[in-house]
Design goal:
By secondary structure, the protein is an alpha/beta fold. The chain has a single domain, classed as Rossmann fold, CATH 3.40.50.300. Helices cover 31% and strands 22% of the residues. The chain has a seven-stranded mixed beta sheet with strand order 1-3-4-2-5-6-7, sandwiched between helices. A hairpin with a 3-residue loop joins strand 3 and strand 4. The mean pLDDT is 93. The structure holds guanosine-5'-diphosphate.
């Protein structure tokens, strides 16, 4: 898809702040530092629209991006940052759970993992949580430019096995450095619209 416009429309913490339009929506989740902001920026052809934002200590919000006036991306604060307090973690969990379980226009969740390493315990928990709610998932295995091409298949296999990937969920090899996987990611997302 050719992105002509992309803007942040709201940072929300609770449902009455979510945008009212019933546009198809995709949530983007991943552990802190995995490359989620870079993925969003690459998909939207923007340098720094999504910030390496949800840094610990900052307010944890769901950031809604309106794209081409026809869909929303929802940037979910990163998980798995060790120094977050129990209270913050609980608030995060509640906010995410409320959003994921109540948002009717949510078409699929894009879960970003690092192709270089097997998915972490946090990644597995997130994926299990999404599958518990029967949400379609698109796995983005990013930082592919950091793995030699000859090892891609091996790393993909490990990623799929570690997550126990549902055969109906797509896994896409991605690099925010090279743009690899961008067209495939858009066509998979469009298939859910
Ligand atoms: P976030 O915390 O998940 O939003 O992560 P960022 O998008 O800020 O990325 C974390 C770090 O990984 C930054 O230094 C990025 O430049 C780097 N990074 C992200 N994606 C890629 C990628 O595809 N390839 C490479 N080589 N580095 C990446």
């Amino acid at each position: 898809m050719k992105v002509n416009s992309a803007d942040i429309v709201i940072s929300a913490v609770k449902p009455d702040q979510y945008p009212g339009e019933a546009l198809p929506e995709f949530a983007l989740a991943g552990r802190s530092n995995v490359g989620k902001s870079s993925f969003i920026n690459k998909m939207l052809n923007r340098k720094s629209l999504a910030r390496t934002s949800s840094k610990p200590g900052k307010t944890q919000t769901l950031n809604f991006f309106l794209i081409n006036e026809i869909l929303h991306f929802v940037d979910v604060p990163g998980y798995g940052y060790a120094k977050v307090s129990k209270k913050e973690r609980e608030a995060w969990g509640k906010m995410i759970e409320t959003y994921l379980t109540s948002r009717e226009q949510l078409k699929a969740v894009v879960l970003i993992v690092d192709l270089r390493h097997p998915p972490t315990q946090d990644d597995i928990m997130m994926y299990d949580f999404l599958k518990h709610y029967e949400l379609p998932c698109v796995i983005i295995a990013t930082k592919a430019d950091k793995v030699p091409k000859s090892k891609w298949q091996k790393h993909i296999k490990i990623t799929k096995e570690t997550l126990d990937l549902d055969p109906t969920d797509h896994l896409i090899l991605f690099s925010s450095e090279t743009g690899q996987g961008k067209d495939e990611a858009w066509s998979v997302l469009q298939s859910y619209m």
